[in-house]
Amino acid sequence: MLHPVIPVVWLATSIFGIVAGPFGTELFPLTGRFAFWPITIGLGVLAGGILRVIVREYWGLRAFWPEAPLIAVLATLGLTPLFMALASAVAGPAQHVPSIPEMMSYVFIMSIITSTLRHAVAASGIGARAEMPPLGLDPADAPPPEREPAARLMARLSEQNRAPLVRLQMRDHYVEVFTEAGSETVLLRMADAICGAEGVEGLQVHRSHWVARQAIRGVSRAQGKVSLVLKDGTQVPVSRGNAPAVLALGLTEILPKADNGSGAPQALAAQ
After folding, report:
1. Pairing of the two strands 182-186 and 202-206
2. Within 13 Å of residue 117, how many CA atoms lie on the same side as its CB?
3. Signal sequence: where (predicted)?
4. What H or E segment, with its residue span, contains residue 82?
């Protein structure tokens, strides 16, 4: 609800409703539209936020189906009486008020459209590239963190998983946070999770992967593909676009499945 885009969307859609008068509200007097649209859109945004928390966090329904239809049904049942009362109050003497079935269909359709757009934007990762920290950024060149390293991200984890950060991995609309104590999935955009890890030196090597610098053991190349090898043995894929920058970091190069019998990796000379 505190996202800066919320008031912008509220204002833009309110102006559109007042000017265009969709769903039969063109018959309302102008003063009625000035009251109806800002109030209904504001109530819709508030109700949608509350219902998403209930459905996703408390009921655990996070996929588009059944999350979006369920939110739409709950929003329709809860908001239709309020919207009908408001429409009756502002419609004017002509009383051009949509019928209850019409109002229910309007609320349901708008809720489904909103959920569809939200899932599409989350899946596309729009905005993540713009907020990505520079690959291999020298911490001496970065401004000092205003908070304890990763404090904002750690606050989202259960107490037993709050430990030094290892890596982040995007999974659908969630981010799995790996620490030295374990892993936990949180409802968060990848870009926001990286911002929450402020103060921990790391690099995003793939659209879906961010790695803490201290967790990297070396780099591996096999069949033209580059991956980071972490100290816990995990291999994290590196996208083609990020591969040259990763290789330029001078990390120890590890042969795939290499083990010299002593548990130490076999290092290759830099090519």
Report:
1. unpaired
2. 6
3. none
4. helix 64-90
If residue 39 lies in a helix (H) or strand (E), which one and from where to where?
A: helix 30-52
As given in the structure block, the two tokens for residue 227 are 């991956």
pTM score: 0.48
Segments of the chain assigned E as strands: 165-171, 174-179, 182-186, 202-206, 209-212, 216-222, 225-230, 235-238, 253-254, 267-268
Q: What does the alpha-carbon distance between residue 13 and residue 117 come to, in Å, rounded to a whole number?
A: 15
Higher per-residue pLDDT: 61 or 200: 200
What are 230's strand-pairing partners? 216
53-67, 69-83, 238-252: lowest mean pLDDT where? 53-67
Separation CA 261–CA 256 (nearest Å) = 14
Contact 121, 113 (CB under 8 A): no
The C-alpha atoms of residue 250 and residue 256 are separated, in whole angstroms, by 17
Collapse the DSSP code of 139 into the 3-class scheme (helix H, G, I; strand E, B; otherwise coil) and give the result: helix
Distance, CA of 35 to chain centre: 32
Q: Which of 46, 45, 36, 1 is nearest to 16 (CA)?
A: 36
| Domains of the chain with bracketed CATH | 5-124 (no CATH), 139-268 (2.40.50.1020)
Indicate the pairing of strand 267-268 with strand 225-230: unpaired
**224 or 62, greater pLDDT:** 224
pLDDT tens digits, residue range 52-75? 888 876 787 767 788 889 999 999
3-state secondary structure of 92: coil
Residue-wise pLDDT for 31-41, tens only, equals: 999 999 999 99
